[in-house]
Every structure is written in structure tokens, then in C-alpha cells.
Design brief:
homotetramer, 7 strands, 46% helix
Chain lengths: 265, 265, 265, 265
């Protein structure tokens, strides 16, 4: 890492596949940030992403990172802060979705894994990064939430438990760190995202393409990662007098989580 | 109104004094919108604002508008749509704050007035404007909320009743109109705003200046209208695949509405 | 009214037809309260109810009361307190449901009427009754809420606006009066009630009977007023160390307001 | 265990010290249930409780149970169902409160322990018990929540994260099991409880007695476990047409979680 990037502001994105995280990576890179983006697996995709970003003239470094493993987050934060630069914005975008599973089909290990991905990873990131940001008196931690952050539902035993926990952890972190200049922001993604790496893999390519045709494309019924990224970028640049803690995002044609689709009396 | 402004997108701001509404007016004007801004009274201030905006080269028209009077909103919307241009974004920023009053000190007339300002005015705006926007398949209605939108408190009998009503009306409007391309967005202003016309008048000039020194200025403890306006502008330009229905805004050093200040167990 | 009933504790039920209000009336009467029950119209039904209650050996008086008319609530409260006895528990059970109506089909007068029934009537009751209860250091105000109290939905412009307002008014009343010994309690009825006077009239007798067969009876898919009344009675007798402000009630087979019925991702 | 108790309905209370859990144990025992009560430690206190209950003529069995240990909950549920009787009502009352700790002072192990106590234990109980109840088409799972279930706060990183998770797990369990006849109910204890084993130990005897004198006793400013138990008992006996999913409980003089104590504008 040369001096030039040392002087750049750094944006760290944990959970940077081909969906929301990838789009945020591109957005911050295109705005002049050095982006450190991390994904759980797929070294090949990681290198392609880094190559692509550099081909655009951006400053970027990709990392394979399993947030469920000890010391991984801790080491990455340390390395960036020591060798690359000060983290201006960190995005915790690790998903914990496992599809709908009945209680019987949700194993103890699955439930525990959900907690590690959804909650504990964020906690470890916060523990390592927020004191540094507080010492600088500035910084952003943007955290991706989901419909399951605000309500449990059938088959969501693991997902809702960990996403609600993630949200409340954000509230606690905010209560301690906002006063010290660190902006914590929780973004509720309340709809299906046009993301090949997550929704696409869950549905399979054929069903995913069908969904895109029925709901997405010009119908605007799937959240587009590039537009999500614009709001994340806006949130990371709010003035300290005027911070958002929580915002929701959904396609105009999606039914919000608080609405039944059935006839109401 | 000449042809030039006819071709401009129009932003209508109801409740445009020297605080949030005024800042939104300036922001949209500076971005090339024709702004129609309305305030309850003070023709002098209105004309000064219009003069100022025109002196910047902006396109603007000011209106005195009492939202509690019959047909006022209805006529203004009709006039704008017919003579000025299509309303791209309407902002309902009418306050209904009367300070803290005990139940005994809150008269029936006061309570009714609170409802007219807080809820009924928005309802009338929606009834007149949203069908037009729906027919065009596009448009934004941004609605200013407050701490009292999400919780009642001592002395807030009138304010909380009407602001919660306003919020829920937004949810109902969203359920009917989002699908038709109209973006409804409710912004919770959860803190004190550095606004001479509202907070300033409530406190008086001396106490207001003291508050600014203790909490505002470089301490960033008062919401700055110009920064609030940036978020409103961002929200009005989200892509239909990725809309925010609700967001909150507060100074970094303010305690969010859901947090006690007392020691918790 | 003889001395005997003067010594009885009084329960005032506003909105006492053949559903929730009627069942609460019976429950409190059967537990030894003098019940003052009021309904908007139908003198015949009122007298039958009074006759029935007296035939059970209960102490009761029925009143025709239009809460949208000036001074009606005020006079009734005054009359009861002066001539009958101290109101131990007041139940505000006035509905404001008008079925699902689009914004276009919701007239200004309808919206205003919704506010008068849903919010303003409660406010007037509170203004007249709570200071008396506070002076005694004891009393209960139980307020019936609905699904629309916590979320707006398509067609619920009037209903959600007024029910959310009612709920927030309860929070404000609680903040001022709980400390003075007055128990404010808001009960969210989140499902269809087996009530001939409201749901029955809305659906018509044939459709209502069909609904009862498909969802009600031994299927327990409709809220039974007599069981609702048990919970109201419990809430009115909680110890001041242990008060409920809010509770929800729904049939075991109903989908809660926060759950979609569609498959979630 | 003789045949007599085999025929009794069983109430299982996990987390039964000298506070809420103990009072629920006594209440259900006094109403004719066989109570299986479990606490983490203190065999002596456990035996005293069992002795006391039997001296009242009640049917009871005490168990030492560490919910953080593998297979403990699983074995207890199995043993009760096989040898004692059908569990009519289970109460998960395990606390996860560690007092207010900054992020720095909240160790990874502490955070994980909070999750095990607050969330994972309930999940394991649900996994083992709810299918049995569903097969019987009846049963209650009452879960104790806290202020931290609905909002994070300074120093509550661990507590709020796990209690919010617990709450959302309840919502998911409800979505799957209510339809099958199993009543899930989440009770938010939003205030200080007059409980020697938890609050008493946290404060120490002198400060606890001072608190009781300042807030408790006839001032009713501390939640009394015996009165909490009455509401739990009521909730466990609601008719399937009329179930509560969530209720809150607080002393009349406590400030609800949604209210600031500071002057509001």
C-alpha cells in the first residue's frame, strides 16, 4: 500500500458479494475512498472484483473473511488501521438468512451460526473499531437490517432472533458512541433484493430470472443494490447535527412489513 | 408565470418559515426546482424570502396559507397544477407543537386546532394532490414528523395525538399510492431544531441564544435545517426500486426518544 | 338511585352494544359493580339490556349517548359522579371503523367524524373524568384499540389516523396520570370480533353467519366478547405496583398485524 | 411421583428464585398445579422452597438447572413429560442482566453467555416442548421480557441484544405454533422488581432496603412478584379465541421506556 492510499479515507465493507455489499463497495470506491471489501469465500470472485475496481482507476483491496472464525475481524481491522488508513465508514452487511425453516428443521448449530453471523460478528467489529473511531471523534458504522429485524415470522426462528438482536445492539452502540462522534446507522431492507449471490442462489438461476421478469427490471419490484448504495453513501455523509439512526428501504410495489395483504376490518 | 418555469419541476412546501421548511425551499430552488412555499402568516417575511430566492436566480413563489381554513390547500394545489407546473414533490411541514401543557390546560379548541394542523391539513393535501400524482405515476409527498409521532408524553396530549395520527395517515396513504408510483415518506425529527421561527419564538431570543451556545453551533446538538434539507432532497430522489418510507433525524448528542436518561437495570 | 347502589363501585362503559362493550358491562355487573352503559342509538336494545341485567339481580343503568355531540360525555360523567357513585373504571369502547375505503371515497366529513369518535370523545372523557380520579388517587380508564392503532393500511385512512391518535393520547394521559394513581390501559383488539352489532352489521346476517361457521364457534378464530371482558376485568384490578399499559388480544388462529401471510425471504 | 400428581396439570418454571419465578411457582401451586421449578444454583434455597410449598399442601418438585449447559433443559423436559405429567404451562424466566457495562467492559465471553441465557435457552426449551404441546393441541409458553427487549441503551450491549432476540424468537414461535393451539406470550417487565435474588444481589442489602423504602412498600414503585404472578396466571388461562401475545407491566410511578424524563419540545 503506497502513501497515496494511506491518505485516502477507507471504507470497510464486510459482506461484499454481488449484491448490496458489492454495490456499496463500488459506490464508495467511485467517490474516492479506498475500499477494503471482504467476503466469506470465493477467492476468484474476490480477485475479479478487485481487478474490476482497479481497472476503473479505483483504490481497493479484497479480503476473504469468515466472520464466524475467531480473530478474523479483529485482525482485519487492525491490519487496515495500521497499514492502509483510518476507517471512515464500516459497513456490516453479513446476511444470516437461511430461508424459511420450521422449528423442527432449525438445528441448534444452525441457530448458533445465525447468531454468529447476525449478531456476534457485528459485536466483535464494534468492539475493535468503535473505540478507535471514538478516539478520532468521527466515523460511521452502517449496519444492514432486514424485515426480520423488526418482526418474527413463521420459519424465521433463527433469522429474526439474530437480526432483532443486531438491531438492538446498534441501539446500544448508538447510545454509547453517538455522543463521541461515531455515527451508527441501521438500514432495514424490507423487500427482495436483486442480488445474484444471495437471493439468486437461494432460488436458483431459472426461478431468479423469472422473479426478475415478474417483479424486477422496469417494474421496480426488486431492490436494486446500486440504489441502495446511494442511500448508504448519503447516510455516511450526514452532518453530525443531523444523523439518521434508522431508515427503511423497499421497492415501491412491495408491501411493507406492517401491512397484511388480506382484507382488513 | 412564464413558460420557462412551466417546464420546471415544482416543489410545494407547506409550512415554510425560517426553519426546516425554509431550508427545504432553498435546497430545492438551488437544485433547479420552481418552489412554491407557503406559510401561515407574515406577508413581509414571505416577500423577503421570495426576493432572496429570486436574487439567487432561483424560481420561486410565496403564498400565505392558513391550513386550518376551508379550501385553502385545495385552491393552492389547483392553482399550482394549472398555472405553474406539475408538483414533483410536496412537503407537509406544518407544526402542531404547543409546548408542554397539562390536560387541564389543554382546551378543547386547542386540541381540535392541533388536529387540524397536524392531521387534517395533510389529509386534505393528500386528497387533492395524490390522485394527480397517481395519474402521472410519479411524485413525492414528504411529511415532517416529530418525537411525538412515536410516543406520547406528559404535556403532549394534543401534539402526540395529532402527530401519531399524521404518521399513521402516511402509512395508509403509502399502502394505497406507493404501488401507483407516489412516494410517501415520513421523517421523524427527534430533537431540537435550530429554528428561529418555532423553537426561537417558543423560548424567546435570550433563552434561544443561550441554547444555541450550549448545544448548538460547533457542538452540533441542534438539528440544522440546511442539513435536514439535504436528507429531504435525497429522499425525494430515490429510485422507485428503493424507497424509504420512514427515517429519523437527530443531533449526534441528542438522546433518542427510546432511551431514558436515568440509570437502567 | 338508592343508597345501596351509591355505595357500589361504578363502571362506566361508553360504546356498549352487543359486542365487546356489552360483554364488559355484563362482566362488571356480575362482579358487583353498578354499570352505567351507553350506546349511540337504539333505545329499545338499551332497555332490553338494562332489563336483562336487572333480571340477573345486577345494578345497571343504560344511557343513549352520542359522543360526537357537544356536552354529552361531560353531562353523563357529571350525572354519574353526582347521583350514582364514584366511577371506579371507565371503558372507552367507541368504534371508528368504516370498512375499507379508498382515499377518494373517504370524504372530509367522514374523516372528521372518525376523529370525533376515535379520538376527541376519549379526550373529552379524559378531561372530565381523570382529574376526579386523580383527586381520589385511584381509578381505571380502559381504552379499546384495534389493529389500526399500530399500523395504517390501504383503505384505513380515517380509521388508522384516529386509532393511532387514540393510542398516543393514552400514552400522554398515562404520563400525566399514572403517577397520580389513575391506571390508563390500551387494549389492541387485533382480529375479528364475534360482534353482531359491528362486524355483523358490516357484513350482513348471511355473510356474518358464514364467517362464524368458517372461523368462529369451536374454531376459535373470532374473538369472543365474553373472553375479552375477562381480560378487561383483570386489567382493571391489577395492583398499582404492577400495571399493564398495553396488551394485545387476538384469536389463536389469526395472523398478528406484524406478519405477512406471504412467503418471506 | 404418585398417580395423584400424574393427573395434575404441570407448570414448569425455569428461573425460579426469590423474585418473579418464585412467585409464579407459588401462584400456580396454590391453584392446584404440580409445579416443577428450576434455578441455576443454591440447592439449599431450592429445598427450602420445595419444603415450603409442600407444607402448604401443594405439589412441587425443585430442580437445579444450568440452562447454559448442554442437554440440561432437554433432559428436564423429557423427565417431566415422562414421569410427572403433561406440561400445561412453561415459564421461561431466566434473566440475562449484567448491570450497565460499557462496550469495553463487556467481554466476548460475557456477550456469548448473555445470548445463551437470554435466547438460546429459550430456543432449546421451545424445540423440545412446543412439538409436544402442538401434538396435544394445547399449552402455554410464557416468556419474561424486560425494558431491554424493546430498546437498546448505554451499557446494555449484551442485555438488549439477547432480550430483543428472545422477543423476536417468541414472535416466530407464535407464528408457527399459535395455530396449533400453543399460546406463546411475552411479558415485558418495564421497571424494577422487588426481588432479593436479582435486584437485591445487584445492589447489596443496604442499598436494596433503601430502594424499597424510597420506592417500594406502600409507594408501589417496585413491581411486586406476587402481583406479576397474577397476570401470568391470567395469561395462561385465556381462551383460545382471545389470546394475548404481548403485555407490559410496570409500577404506576415508573416512567415507561418510551418516555424521556427531560423537558420535551
Amino acid at each position: 500500500m503506497n502513501n497515496q492510499s494511506r491518505e485516502k479515507k477507507v471504507c470497510l465493507i464486510i459482506g461484499a458479494g454481488a449484491g448490496i455489499g458489492g454495490a456499496i463497495t463500488k459506490k464508495f470506491a467511485s467517490e474516492g475512498y479506498h475500499v477494503c471489501f471482504a467476503r466469506r469465500s470465493d477467492q476468484h470472485a474476490l480477485m475479479n472484483m478487485e481487478k474490476y475496481l482497479k481497472s476503473c482507476g479505483y483504490s481497493a483491496s479484497g479480503h476473504i473473511l469468515d466472520v464466524t472464525k475467531e480473530d478474523t475481524i479483529e485482525e482485519l481491522v487492525g491490519k487496515i488501521e495500521q497499514k492502509i488508513g483510518s476507517i471512515h465508514t464500516a459497513v456490516y452487511n453479513v446476511g444470516a438468512q437461511i430461508g424459511n425453516r420450521s422449528l423442527e428443521d432449525t438445528k441448534l448449530k444452525t441457530f448458533e451460526l445465525g447468531w454468529k453471523l447476525g449478531t456476534f460478528g457485528l459485536y466483535r467489529l464494534a468492539k475493535n473499531l468503535l473505540p478507535i473511531m471514538a478516539a478520532r471523534g468521527t466515523g460511521n458504522l452502517l449496519v444492514t437490517g432486514a424485515t426480520a429485524s423488526v418482526r418474527g415470522n413463521s420459519g424465521q426462528h433463527s433469522h429474526a432472533a439474530t437480526m432483532a438482536s443486531r438491531r438492538m445492539l446498534c441501539q446500544s452502540l448508538n447510545a454509547e458512541f453517538a455522543l463521541q462522534g461515531v455515527h451508527i446507522c441501521h438500514i432495514i431492507i424490507d423487500g427482495l433484493v436483486d442480488a445474484p449471490d444471495t437471493l439468486g442462489k437461494m432460488l436458483g438461476p431459472a426461478e431468479f430470472e423469472l422473479l426478475r421478469q415478474n417483479k424486477g427490471y422496469e417494474k421496480n419490484g426488486l431492490l436494486l443494490p446500486s440504489h441502495i448504495a446511494e442511500t448508504y453513501y448519503h447516510l455516511a455523509h450526514q452532518h453530525p447535527s443531523t444523523w439518521t439512526f434508522e431508515t427503511d428501504l423497499r421497492p415501491h410495489s412491495a408491501i411493507p412489513w406492517w401491512n397484511h395483504v388480506t382484507k382488513e376490518f
